[in-house]
Design brief:
The complex is a heterodimer of chains A (about 300) and B (about 240). Chain A has about 300 residues and is mostly helical. Chain A has a single domain (about 15-290), classed as ABC transporter involved in vitamin B12 uptake, BtuC. In chain A, about 75% of the residues lie in helices and about 5% in strands. Chain B has about 240 residues and is of the alpha/beta class. Classes of the chains: A mainly alpha (about 300), B alpha/beta (about 240).
């Protein structure tokens, strides 16, 4: 009990920090889950799209380092740029392989990930880059006597906004209704006269936009390097698998859980050494107990 | 000109040949029954027409236009409605959403349209109290009504019904038959795949019998009903 009382401020701050990591992870993994749910394509290029989002945001923010308006411009522009790239990828490549076997889809999306990765390296260089946070978000805010970066507070605030917007899109628009129906039975939806290829395309573009938003938000926190796509795609997969493939709500829960587990592990000297392994251990555990994931639906 | 002309249809599932030179003609306003035992090829014939399992060879002309090989959504938009055997309602959507998904016209645009939410609910009043419920919670009979109602929302000129009476309680089957009779009275053209001869008698105008992927018999309904030997040969279990 003494330990708990003594460490409450640290725990609270770690919980908040874990939550902000969870929000970022959710942005990436929700797009991945959405694309899989509708088109059944496992998009290995999703990490690359996220990376492009981060680099585009870096380029925009570098025009005026520390500027608030340019920060917001980056948050707006970078995801749009990634959405455009997603549209290109879908129309040129993915559209042709929806009916193909999974192995060919995997090969294609992995190839696209490599191509985008090398293109990023060519344009922005192989060395690490860092992004200056906007001036109004450089301060730390004391929470229970602990310093908490105000930038992470903005991410925490954006979390519910994004979630509310997604809920509105999926439950209050016709497009969202069609996406939910396609996730359940896309062939039947087509047999009812719904232009399902258009649904696939728009879902891919929307997923790319979410990945781009995640990348743009993460840029001022982490350094940018051409390898950042690989690390995020693996963690995003873990989140999608734990939540249950294709389950939006499951992805939300698991992204937050992964963020929190990693954040809390930092407090324990033993677990701290293993914080990179913990999400995988969690995934293994979930798969043993419930093979379809926490909120997955058996095929 | 016939509404639908199917000529020498050959359909495969992977390597296995399911339909052999299936030909049939459906005129406007007719209810044509496709009879046969399990695995005779009734479902595959309907899936070939709607494009879910496209035929490898053969021709399907609808309103005079070739539709074999088109994606299902294009075929559906030309005026063919498909009600699958497994019902395939969107269980994660509400009953109302299941109907809205299929409605292609934007509100206000449909002065000349025949089916809308109100009219579909008038035909299937049992669905009305459940509009806001998740469709997955409906009973089997209610799901069958929902899947027909959903397809009607697409305003089809030709309705493909795959074994609608299967797995339903006798009372529900009787109610369903009355509803299909009312559909027939509206002039809707229907292809009805069934095994239940009592269900189709008094409903269908003509009969085709499928066996092992071949059309073996065709006749007007009265002649089929009078022909005990045919029923014994192709339908008795």
């Amino acid at each position: 009990m003494d330990w708990l009382a003594e460490n409450t401020p640290r725990i609270v701050v770690q919980l908040l920090s874990g939550l902000s990591v969870g929000v970022l992870l959710f942005l990436v993994s929700s797009g991945l889950s959405l694309i899989f749910g509708v088109s059944r394509v496992v998009n290995f290029a999703h990490g690359a799209l996220y990376m492009v989002g981060a680099y585009l945001a870096y380029t925009i923010m570098r025009l005026a380092p520390g500027s608030g308006p340019y920060f917001w411009l980056a948050l707006l522009g970078a995801p749009l740029g990634v959405a455009l790239l997603g549209l290109l990828v879908e129309v040129l490549f993915l559209r042709r392989i929806y009916q193909a076997e999974h192995i060919y889809q995997l090969l294609l999306t992995i190839a696209i990930a490599f191509i985008i990765g090398d293109t990023v390296r060519t344009i922005w260089g192989a060395e690490n880059r860092s992004v200056t946070r906007p001036d109004f978000l450089t301060a730390t805010i004391p929470i229970l006597g602990q310093a908490f970066p105000s930038y992470n507070l903005v991410i925490l605030g954006l979390g519910p906004v994004v979630l509310g917007a997604l809920w509105w899109v999926f439950y209050r628009t016709r497009w969202g209704m069609l996406v939910r129906a396609a996730t359940w039975d896309r062939d039947m939806l087509g047999a009812l006269g719904v232009n399902t290829p258009l649904v696939y395309s728009t879902v891919f573009v929307f997923g790319a936009w979410l990945a781009g938003l995640g990348g743009a938000l993460v840029a001022p926190i982490q350094g940018l390097s051409p390898g950042m796509d690989a690390s995020v795609i693996i963690l995003a997969f873990v989140a999608v698998v734990i939540g249950g493939l294709g389950s939006f709500f499951g992805t939300l829960v698991s992204a937050v859980v992964i963020g929190e587990v990693q954040a809390l592990a930092v407090l324990n000297p033993f677990l701290r050494q293993y914080d990179l392994v913990l999400p995988f251990a969690l995934m293994a555990l979930v798969l043993i107990v419930k093979p379809v994931g926490l909120f997955g639906r058996p095929e | 000109m016939a509404l639908l002309e199917v000529e020498r249809l050959n359909t495969f599932y992977g390597q296995s040949h399911i339909l052999f030179d299936v030909s049939l003609v459906v005129d406007k306003g007719e209810v044509v029954c496709l009879l046969g035992r399990n695995g005779a090829g009734k479902s595959t014939t309907l899936k070939s027409i709607i494009g879910l399992v496209p035929p490898r060879w053969g021709s399907i002309r609808f309103k005079g236009q070739e539709i074999a090989g088109l994606p299902p959504y294009r075929i559906a938009r030309m005026g063919i409605g498909y009600v699958p055997e497994e019902r395939r309602i969107f269980a994660n959507l509400s009953v109302r959403e299941n109907l809205e998904v299929a409605c292609r016209l934007t509100p206000g645009e449909g002065n000349g349209r025949r089916w809308d939410m109100e009219r579909v609910l008038a035909l299937f009043p049992r669905l009305r109290p459940f509009l806001e419920r998740r469709a997955g919670t409906l009973s089997g009979g209610e799901q069958q009504m929902l899947t027909i109602a959903r397809t009607l929302m697409t305003n089809p000129d030709l309705l493909l019904l795959d074994e609608p009476s299967e797995g339903l309680a006798p009372v529900v089957v009787q109610a369903l038959k009355e509803q299909l009779l009312r559909l027939k009275e509206t002039g809707l053209t229907i292809i009805l795949a069934e095994q239940n001869v009592r269900f189709v008698s008094g409903l269908g105008d003509r009969v085709y019998i499928l066996e092992k992927g071949h059309i073996r018999y065709q006749a007007p309904m009265e002649r089929f009903l009078a022909d005990e030997a045919v029923r014994m040969a192709y339908l008795a279990v």
